[in-house]
Amino acid sequence: MTRRLNYWLLALLILFGVPFYWYFIDAGPDASRPKPVTMAQLRSLADTKSGERPVEVRMETIGTRWVMRNRLVSGWGLRQTLTAVRSYELIVPGQNPIVIDAGTSRKAAANADLLGFDSSAQKRVDKALANASRVILLQNTSLHNGGKPREKKKPVRGLGDLEPRAVAPGVVEIPATELGPRAKLVYAQLADGQEFLFTGPAAKVPESLEMMKPPARAAAPEYAPNYRAESKAWLMTINALRKAAPDMTVITAHDSGQIGDVMEGFSD
């Protein structure tokens, strides 16, 4: 009886344990390598455009939602953790602001199980978007683009579209298109030299960088077939950038905590 029970337990372990490990715990192969992006390169690009640089970073929190930890970082666990949907505003003296991410809509928030959708915060974001000198989306999906449907067709890219490029004085876009539709990171250097890196989908939460693991296979989006390998490569890249610039503020895609050197609430 005991032997038969052991066989049954072993069969159940194989039947359920192996797929669970594969889809939720395994971090994947270790063949990823950092991207050829350096702090020297980003700082040099930030200097290529003349004019006023941003002097302040502000943010609005549109809503929060609970997400299973394994869906953010493979092997992190089955418990849920709080994540946020946010939009950021770079204040430029004498000019309209630069807005990073457009928030979402009430419908898209409901579809994503977003808690406490803050319509007032979204209205402030919409007002900033209407007056912005530039809008940068970290990813063209509904929790970043104002609630529009996800871009289904892969955009046609030019030869230079995969290279970091300055888009404003002190502001550099870093394409990461293998992570999703028009995915990117953004580097910003303020007038006082303070540095920020918005990771977009390259790092979901701070724990992504601490544990150096991509989201679980079960959470890999179908529109990005190389997502986990690319995610690991970008996590390695971000940590290399952090090592080269230890005072830089790194803002992950769905961090729900307080962020140092970022002011709450968009400007009037």
From TrEMBL:
Chain ranges passing through the membrane: 7-25
This protein's UniProt keywords: Membrane, Transmembrane, Transmembrane helix
Protein name as it appears in the record: DUF4340 domain-containing protein
Species in which this protein is naturally found: Novosphingobium indicum
Organism classification: Bacteria, Pseudomonadati, Pseudomonadota, Alphaproteobacteria, Sphingomonadales
